[in-house]
Amino acid sequence: MTGTQQIKKAKTKSDRAKIEDDSILQAVVALEGDIASLENNITKIKEQLGVLKEAIKEEERWVRLSKAVQVTGIKRNAMIARIKDGRWLPGKHYRNTSDGCKPFYIVNLKAVEELLNKPPEKRPPAKF
Q1: CA distance linking residue 81 with residue 65, whole number of Å
Q2: Which residue, of 3, 9, 100, 113, has the fewest CB within 10 Å?
Q3: How many domains are there within the chain?
Q4: Domain with 94 in it
Q5: Distances from the Cα of 12 to the Cαs of 4, 5, 23, 25, 91, in angstroms?
Q6: Band of the pLDDT at 99, cuts 50, 70, 90?
């Protein structure tokens, strides 16, 4: 029997009030359980977002030359010159991801920014 049906069958006002109070209490307990479940789900989602953010950061660390030009302000030809003359190290500052004869470079923005933040005299010299 539902709370509404119990209230209709109750004979006195105090019986009705008690039934209403019990119904309200049950609803509050149910809502508290739902809130706890939602808070648990929110915590799990936040943890998953943290993992995804780390994965995105790792992925964004290596970008195409065109994106690196926009971020660093160094021209494309200057980047290629730094790759070819050895100022940028393979695996650290850049990667050649091509399968063919024409190189396709991706750049590690974090490593390049660290290199650019050093004074010129502390940067590695070109290796001709």
Answers
A1: 12
A2: 100
A3: 1
A4: 62-117
A5: 15, 14, 17, 20, 83
A6: confident
| 43 vs 48: CA distance, rounded Å | 9
Identify the top-confidence range among 1-5, 12-16, 58-62, 103-107: 103-107
Query: What is the rounded distance in angstroms from the CA atom of residue 96 to the CA atom of residue 116?
Result: 21
Query: Distance between CA 6 and CA 8 in Å, rounded?
Result: 5
Eight-state DSSP code of residue 90: B
The strand pairing partners of 62, in sequence order, are 108
Domain presence at residue 85: yes
Round to whole Å and give the CA distance between 61 and 40.
Answer: 32
Mean pLDDT of 73-102: 92
Is the model's pLDDT at 55 over the cut of 80? no
Mean pLDDT of the chain: 84
Residue 67 lies in a domain: yes
HSE-up of residue 98 (Cα within 13 Å, Cβ side): 7
- Who's near 113: CB < 8 A, 6+ residues apart? 72
